[in-house]
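Re: export button greyed out
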Amino acid sequence: MKEELKNLIESASLEAKTIETENDYLNIKSKYLGKKSKLSDLMKNLKDMTSDEKKQYGPLFNKIKKDLESLFVKYYDNVLNKEEKITFDPTIPVNEEKGSLHPVTIIAKEVTDVLKNIGFMVLEGPEMESEYYNFTALNVAENHPARDMQDTYWLDNGLLLRTHTSPVQVRAMEKYGAPIKMCAAGRTYRNEDLDASHENTFFQVEGMVIDKNISISNVIYVMKGMLREVFNQDVEVRLRPGFFPFVEPGFELDCSCTICGGKGCQTCKNTGWIELCPCGMIHPNVLQMSGIDPEEYSGFAFGLGLTRLAMMKYKIKDIRVLNSGNLRFLEQFNVR
Ligand code: FA5
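Workaround output, generated via the alternate export path:
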């Protein structure tokens, strides 16, 4: 028996040195320590041994089992350490190809930087929003057709994917009260038919100023200034009446299409203009619902289509390329 055990330990020790993978480790463990192993067979003899022999072999079997186990683990650890060393090998050449910022991220930073410089707080709001913040608190009644125009993705938890960044206005009014100057850039969602200028996932920047004696001329001044900074030149814009339940009066600010120079193309649906930034004076109901006295304060708000602004600045003909993950397209924006 002793001779057999000695041979077993010798061959296990030799084989342990060949462990190179997790599979090798598991196989050798099962071969020498498993239920059908030689050691297990030898241990079955215990029941026929005298009590003196049992006293001698019982502890010996246990010791051999433990020794072999730690031997296998030791060799397997060496394998793992070797793998770790390879993972952190500092001599591996660095991949010089770095990513660059997405064009919408570049524009979002440019716009919020301009607004920050003139005293706007830069805030964020949740993309998964409640019906109250997305519609009700913005004076959009439950059966109002404006809810249809901003059809969205309704979630199992009763929330929805926000259709615009306007809910951040409400959250900011509730948290900070008046006076206030804030902006918030972020992703918005709509259940849309896609075309060259409509995506189901796009970005907006909300802006809002509430103070005493605010008028529509303030919003026009801020928006024109912001566009001038982003485009590094004056851009042709036009203002026309627009309806949104949360502003009164409301306006649509359109930008002359930079793709066709205003001549008309597929991107601007042959109108020569791109709807860019609706705005208006905040409706008194909205102020009141968020705890601000409309007799004392007035304010303006705008909701800039950030993805469309990126299209206009970089002359991108089709909005769909922006969410496509197309690296050849994205590599052109070499900003980090
Ligand atoms: C709104 O979302 C309002 N919340 C804007 C607002 C804020 C008005 C504050 C008044 C006061 P509208 O649905 O028009 O409005 O969207 C605003 C801008 O987002 C559009 O002018 C357009 O530039 C952009 N936009 C709207 N839908 C899409 C779309 N499907 N794909 C890409 N851009 C879009």
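Residues 164, 166, 190, 192, 198-199, 202, 204, 244, 247, 250, 275-276, 278-280, 301-303, 305, 307-308, 319 surround adenosine-5'-[phenylalaninyl-phosphate] (CB under 6 Å). The button fix ships in the next patch.
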